[in-house]
Amino acid sequence: MVRVVPLHRLSPEAWCQSKHWEYRSSGSWASIPFEQENQRLIGEMNSLFDEVRQIEGKVVEISRLQEIFTEKVLQQEAEIDNIHQLVVGATENIKEGNEDIREAIKNNAGFRVWVLFFLVMCSFSLLFLDWYDS
Questions:
Q1: What does R_g of the chain's alpha carbons equal in angstroms?
Q2: I need a labelling partner for 121 at 20 to 30 A (CA). Which of 92, 95, 96, 106 fits?
Q3: Are 10 and 16 in contact (CB under 8 A)?
Q4: Which family, according to the similarity comment (predicted)?
Q5: Helix (H) / strand (E) containing 23
Q6: CA distance 22 to 97
Q7: Reduced to 3 states, what is the DSSP secondary structure of residue 22?
Q8: Residues 6 or more apart in contact with residue 60 via CB below 8 angstroms
Q9: Which residues, at least 6 apart from 29, have a Cβ–Cβ distance to it below 8 Å?
Q10: Residue 89 pLDDT > 90
Q11: Residue 128 in 3-state DSSP?
């Protein structure tokens, strides 16, 4: 297995001894690994930049969805409060209706007693008049 050492960690002597330096025909020394590393770093930076753009787009989308979610929750809160008020009103109406029905039943029973009493009295009056006339 070959051990890879980053270029910036090598000593100057190690650089010269390795095949990282070449002598150009013009007599100048050039570093091929620096150019390669620069290209690699530029590629990584471009890749990171693209990833950051994607993440930024996702964060913006999440923020937009969070705003929509908050708006919907507030709408639901208002609707729930309205439903609660309607339920309280309906409960009060049912209680009043039950009381009215109880009162009507009592009044109706009293009215029946009076009608029954009147019919019985009329019947006895007719019997008495029939007996008195004969």
A1: 51
A2: 106
A3: no
A4: Belongs to the syntaxin family.
A5: strand 21-23
A6: 103
A7: strand
A8: none
A9: 21, 22, 23
A10: yes
A11: helix
pLDDT tens track for 30-85: 567 788 888 889 999 999 999 999 999 999 999 999 999 999 999 999 999 999 99
- CA-CA distance, 40 to 46, in Å (whole number)? 10
Alpha-carbon gap, residue 104 to 97, rounded angstroms: 10
Instruction: Find out whether 51 and 59 touch, Cβ atoms under 8 Å.
Output: no
Tell me which long-range contacts 19-25 makes (C-beta under 8 A, separation of at least 24): none
Tokens coding 25:
């025909």
Cβ atoms of 37 and 48 within 8 Å: the answer is no
CA distance 55 to 49: 10
Burial of 33 (C-beta count, 10 Å sphere; 0-12/13-18/19+): middle
Query: How far is residue 49 from each of residues 54, 63, 87, 100, measured CA to CA in Å?
Result: 9, 21, 56, 76
- Residue 33 contacts residue 7 (beta carbons within 8 Å): yes
CA-based diameter of the chain, in Å?
A: 163
